[in-house]
Amino acid sequence: MRASVPATVLGLLLLLTGCTGNGGEVTGQTQQTPSGSASSPSPSSSPSTSSTSPGAVESAPELPPSSPPATSRSLAPEEQIALNQNLIDAAWENDVAEASRLIESGADVNYEDETQQSAFLIAASEGYLELLELTLSNGADVHALDSFNGTALIRAAERGHADVVRRLLETDVDVNHVNNLGWTALNEAIIFGDGSPRYVETVQLLVDDGADVRSPSQGDGLTPLQQATSLGFEEVAAVLRTAVEQ
Question: CA separation (Å) from 96 to 42, 122, 124, 139, 213?
């Protein structure tokens, strides 16, 4: 008959052969700790991979590459020239979407070609209000001059583009600038106009903004009222007569 082993001796044997107790060193086997215990590293506490089974390694999730900060790329001279000329072409076509794309790519809204045309000046003379807004919002120089030493305002007034004239008068453009022909915007709205309602409106806008209605022009020595009267533009003359009498 085998003698029974006292419980205390059995416990000591188990201790020596397998485990030394809480927090002790494990000999001959991997220490198993309950999930969530203090000795068990949490998945977020270590960037290294954890072993799940012999020979299997779980890779850390790949992070997407970070985007570099947006910077303006320097353009080669030939690229800049091409962008600028393409902007001029888009302006003549009144292609606002293409003009916007070119400006975003680096085209200069103040670039003037060999005929001293810029996208801004073209928008004014052709009455392209949306294109004009695009150039203004991208730094167009409202004091830019064309080959006649004329402003965008003079060009718009000559064509009777009242809506463009109105928008330009919201800037600090000089309403009384004189071009190399001796004309102001008011003079050109009269002598190159036809007295129709759009020219009457243009003249009214210029007068309301402080255009000089009394001085003789450098071009022909006539006052704006005398010019309108000589051309038979009665409605334009009426606007000017009222302004002179005030």
Answer: 58, 12, 14, 16, 36
Predicted TM-score (pTM) of the model is 0.70
Q: Do 233 and 240 contact (CB within 8 A), yes or no? A: no
Q: How far apart are CA 156 and CA 188, in angstroms?
A: 9
- Calpha distance 224→210 (Å, rounded): 13
Q: Per-residue pLDDT for the chain (246 aa), expressed as one digit of tens each?
A: 444 545 544 454 444 444 444 444 434 444 443 344 344 444 444 444 444 444 444 444 454 444 333 335 688 999 999 999 999 999 999 999 999 999 999 999 999 999 999 999 999 999 999 999 999 999 999 999 999 999 999 999 999 999 999 999 999 999 999 999 999 999 999 999 999 999 999 999 999 999 999 999 999 999 999 999 999 999 999 999 999 998
80 CB-near residues (< 8 Å, 6+ apart): 106, 108
Which residue, among 234, 210, 230, 232, has the nearest Cα to 221 in the 3D structure?
230
Question: Who's near 90: CB < 8 A, 6+ residues apart?
Answer: 98, 99, 102, 119
Q: Which amino acid is at 213?
A: V
CB count in 10 Å sphere of residue 62? 6
Number of other residues whose CB lies within 10 A of the CB of residue 21? 6
Q: Assess contact for 164 and 198: CB atoms under 8 A.
A: no
